[in-house]
Each structure stands twice: as structure tokens, then as C-alpha cells.
Amino acid sequence: MRLPPAHRPTPDPRSARRRGRGLTVRAAAAAGAAAVLGVTLMAGSAEAIVNGEDSRERYTFMASIPLSATLEDGVVLKAPCGATLIDRQWVLTAGHCVDPDLGVTPDGLVRVGSEHRTSGGSVRRIDKIVMHPGYAQGKAGAPNQDDLALVRLDRPVAQKPIRIAKQAGPVGTPTRILGFGTVVGADSPEDWVFPERLQQLDTRRGSEDECFDRAGETRLCTVSPKPDAMACNGDSGGPQLQRARNGRWELIGTTSGDGDNDPTCSTGPGLYTNVPVYADWIRETIRQSG
């Protein structure tokens, strides 16, 4: 999701998506390619996540983290990462959204509980970021490892956090993903269009085979029954939900990357970090950090 140091070799341009759907422009920035991006990111009203729809209910736990990256030609690239409120003062996001080695910096704010990317909800400053100790960038197109980070807000919010599920449902379980990511699954950042309105997409838990054995105990394979629809750049860190027995939403996943090592956003399955597997680490981190 981040821009790597410019001395790294330039990978295939499609790898701009492979290691997460947050900012995901490392390939474009490497080896001087950033100078030719000419990035202009706009808010749009088209359908998104790609090919999702405007949110139809209130998600008080949905959060957004604005990010910035200065490219080699001085152009400042702006994009969001998603996050989920799991405690009145903590949000959960993808590790690659806040990885300093990837060259992208959070703007220092988190917006919680709004259906709109740039207005409404509660806005708080970032007080502390805790990366999962096992987090590592995926190499040669492999998935990221332990792709989670906790972000403490400078003070609590009034919005209600979401409960973390005891476990993700079995293969075939209906799920829903949320995000403010680009509505256009383009390789070039200059063609990305970020919606102002929160987008949702009904999905299901897929099998490991459907994600080409990139899923597993710590990563959920996510498949869209709707053609040409899936999370994309800017959706990293956002939630995957399932219904609890009482009908309420509960958190099972955090947007991490691609379920195929060479898809477009809209045609490939998605990889989501299996949040319930990390519930003990999440609780202990919050307890120790206050």
C-alpha cells in the first residue's frame, strides 16, 4: 500500500495492487516512475468498492484514515485507508496502511462513524500506532503477513464499537465489506476516483482454492457473487462483516490484499486478515496501552 524507496527495482505495474488495496502504488513510485504519474485524485459519485453501492444503513464503527505520499516530482498523493472502531478509543486497520517503510504517512486524523469520507462523524487525532509484531510485507507478490495495526485515538468517541466475532463463519458464509476506496479499478493512480459516500458490497467467505491457496488460518478468502465487484485501492484496513445470531454485525476481517497474484480489483477475489484469530493480541494490546 505504500510507496517504497526509489532505489528498489520496478516490478510489473500490476503489482501496484498485489500487496494491499490501500494506497498500493509502490510499483509506480519505484525507480523514478513516480515522476510521470501526474496524479490527480478526485471524489466521485459513481458506484464503488468497485461496483458496490452506496451504504444503506448506519455503520457507527466505520472509520477512515487519510494518507499522504510525496512522489519524486513533488506531487502529493492523497488516498484513504479504512479502519474499524473496536473500542471507544481504538480503531483496527491494516499494518501496511501505517507501515513507515512504505513511504506513506497518515495525515494524523481518523474520522469515525460517518457515511461520508470528508465530513461528519467524530474526528480524532492519532495518539499511538501499534503494529502487530509479526507484520511483514509480502515478497514477490506474496500476501502480507499478520497485516494488522491498532491506532489509539487522542480521546474516546461517542460512536458504538463493533464486536469481534468469536470466529469467522465457514466457507459460503454471507459477508459484507465496506470502504471509501476507488470506484475505478485502474492501474494508474491518476485514474482512481474516490467516492464521497461510503460503499458496501455483499460478499461471501470463499475457499482456499478460490484464492489460489493464498488464504489460510490467518487470511480469509473473500468472493463477490456480483460480477466485476471487489475491494480496491483505498479500501485497505476496512472491515469485513458477518451477521451474529442476534442479527447484528460482527467483525471477521480487515482488508489486506488480493486473493490472486495477478487480478484486477474487480475480477479477483480478496484477502482479508482473519481478525478473530488475533483477538487475544488486540485485547492485550489495548489493556497494556491504556
Structure, described:
Mean pLDDT is 82; it is low at 1-48. Strand 3 (62-70) and strand 4 form a beta hairpin. It contains 2 helices and 17 strands. Strands 11-13-14-17-16-15 form a 6-stranded antiparallel beta barrel. A 6-stranded antiparallel β-barrel has the order 3-4-5-9-8-7. Strands 1-12 form a two-stranded parallel ribbon. By secondary structure, it is mainly beta. It is globular, with a radius of gyration of 17 Å.
Number of domains: 2
Name of the CATH first level of the largest domain: Mainly Beta
Radius of gyration (CA) equals 17 Å
Q: How are the strands of the biggest sheet laid out side by side?
A: 11-13-14-17-16-15
Give the overall shape, derived from the CA principal axes. globular
Order of helices and strands: HEEEEEEEEEEEEEEEEEH
CATH topology descriptor of the largest domain: Thrombin, subunit H
The helix count comes to 2
Low-confidence stretches: 1-48
Mean pLDDT: 82
- Oligomeric state: single chain
Distance between the termini: 29 Å
Give the beta-strand count.
17
By CATH, the architecture of the largest domain is named Beta Barrel
Described by strand count, sense and barrel closure, the largest sheet is: 6 strands, antiparallel, barrel
Proportion of residues in β-strands: 25-35%
CATH H level, superfamily name of the largest domain = Trypsin-like serine proteases
